[in-house]
């Protein structure tokens, strides 16, 4: 049985848009699932009109998740020419987005519109340790590149993980 704060990711596709909703605390254990779903967005047959990220039920996001959100935001700007729309009213999560400089790459609104779309849970993926380490490294390298104030902190973590891999 899940604890109330254990995270989960819900997804839906509607009218040429993707909706990703985070619930609870999103940790590394869900990053492989999120990363693989993002690949579907990146390599789909058609360009979406919008990517929506609903954080209204999220209680926390780890740094790897923030790095994946950054990757999604940069991809949307480069390939689709729009910023993802994020719904977030949590002062803590807004602080995290600002601290990581993600507010520059996302359009953030305080509340999500009431949507009656059917959402499905993105199932956790049993990923090999090598994939998880690669996702952690890539996410933190990206965060370091967009946030020079935290670069040393992130690159120290990247070096430690890379040494552990070799």
Describe the structure in your own words.
The protein is α/β, with parallel strands linked by helices. It has a single domain (8-126), classed as Transcription Regulator spoIIAA (2-Layer Sandwich), CATH 3.30.750. It is 43% helix and 22% strand. The chain has five helices and six strands; from the N terminus they run ββαβαβαββαα. Strands 5-4-3-2-1-6 form a six-stranded mixed β-sheet. Strand 1 (8-14) and strand 2 form a beta hairpin. Helix 1 (31-42) packs parallel to helix 2 (63-80), helix 2 (63-80) packs across helix 4 (129-146) and helix 4 (129-146) packs antiparallel against helix 5 (151-165). It is globular. The model has no long low-confidence stretch (mean pLDDT 89).
Features:
6 strands, 166 residues, alpha/beta, Transcription Regulator spoIIAA
CATH superfamily: STAS domain
Multimerization status: single chain
Strand order of the largest sheet: 5-4-3-2-1-6
Biggest pleated sheet: 6 strands, mixed
- Please report the number of helical segments: 5
Based on secondary structure, the structural category is alpha/beta
Shape category: globular
Give the uncertain stretches in residue-range form.
none
State mean pLDDT (0 to 100 scale).
89
Distance between the first and last residues' Cα: 36 Å
Examine the secondary-structure arrangement and name the CATH architecture: 2-Layer Sandwich
How is the CATH topology named? Transcription Regulator spoIIAA
Strand content: 15-25%
SS elements, strand count: 6
Radius of gyration: 15 Å
Percentage of helical residues?
A: 40-55%
Reading off the top of the CATH hierarchy, the class is best stated as Alpha Beta
**Any idea how many domains?**
1
Tell me the series of helices and strands, N- to C-terminal. EEHEHEHEEHH
């Amino acid at each position: 049985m899940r604890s109330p704060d254990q995270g989960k990711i819900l997804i839906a596709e509607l009218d040429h848009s993707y909706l990703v909703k985070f619930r609870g605390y999103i940790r590394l254990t869900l990053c492989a699932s999120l990363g693989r779903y993002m690949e579907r967005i990146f390599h789909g047959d058609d360009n979406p009109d919008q990517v929506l990220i609903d954080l209204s039920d999220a209680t926390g996001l780890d740094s790897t998740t923030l790095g994946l959100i950054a990757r999604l935001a940069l991809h949307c700007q480069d390939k689709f020419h729009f910023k993802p729309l994020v719904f977030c009213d949590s002062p803590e999560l807004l602080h995290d987005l600002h601290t990581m400089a993600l507010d520059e790459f996302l359009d953030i609104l305080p509340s999500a519109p009431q949507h009656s779309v059917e959402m499905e849970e993105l199932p956790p993926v049993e990923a090999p340790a090598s994939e998880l380490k690669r996702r952690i490294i890539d996410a933190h390298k990206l965060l370091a590149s967009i946030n020079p104030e935290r670069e040393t902190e992130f690159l120290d973590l990247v070096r430690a993980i890379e040494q552990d891999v070799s």
